[in-house]
Amino acid sequence: MAPLSSSAVRGRSGSRSRGRTRSQARSRFRSRTAGVSFVLPYLAALVLFGLVPTVYGIATSFSVTPVIGDSYTSLTENYSAVLSDYRTLRAAQNVGSYLLIWLPSMLVVVFAVALAMDARRTRFAALTRFVSYVPGAVTGAASALLWLFMFSPAASPASAILRPFAGDSGTVISDGSLPVILSVMGIAAGAGGWIVLLYGALTDISRDVLEAAELDGAGAWHVVWHIKLPMLRSYIGFIFIVSLANGFQVFVEPQVLGAGARGQVDSTWSLNQLVFSYATGESNYGRASALSVLLLVVTVTAAVIVIRKTRFYSKDAA
Per-residue pLDDT tens for 209-220? Predict the structure, then answer.
């Protein structure tokens, strides 16, 4: 058989090279297509149920509905009316008191339980995670109804403890006590899921790092403070952002508790209840939208601050 010429050899090698290039291009295209196919449903939901309502709400916040006469457009009137409404300041103080009690308490409980579970990994760890998560299965109106029963001195299993705190109406539920009651409800309903999340993150920390710290003489507290918590700062940021957004939007719980303890809880106790009152009680959708936009601005600003402080998106944050 005659040997191949150098030009023939180069032709074959070039063909193989072009074939590999086409194969790599097809592989990259499939990878990109697969990624886009996963993201597209989320983007569609984000646009339909996130961006479109937000844009519509912002546009509606400029529509002024007077008691008498036709509606007209103003860039500032609804916002100034909402900010000057005495109920807005009172509702903001109520929600602020609730957040100041609930957020730190929940973070302490979540980290304490997750760190304890990580320090004592036994064969009952799965059962412990399940038990801690179970209270979170009851949320929303069902949770509020359950806790309405639990905080009723006449029917609660803890009635002996609650009776000294009951007012003239015979209930402990009131405008003043609601921040503490909502904090207890929030911790019971939300802590379990965060405990499971943090426990999973803790188990992902390299054992070599922890053993090296122990060999260097680091105690348990130093390991937690200087190794575990810094490696969990992105999780801390995520928990704080989601919890803060949920806290600002508290609505169902005070609404149901107020209905159960008639005359004891203001119908506009929270900011979202005030939005609801504007929209349904006063048919003033412009003011309802204006207050909703203000809540959005506050929440997004807080989220940006937390993201920057925790370096949430940095590659070495996890």
Answer: 877 877 777 777
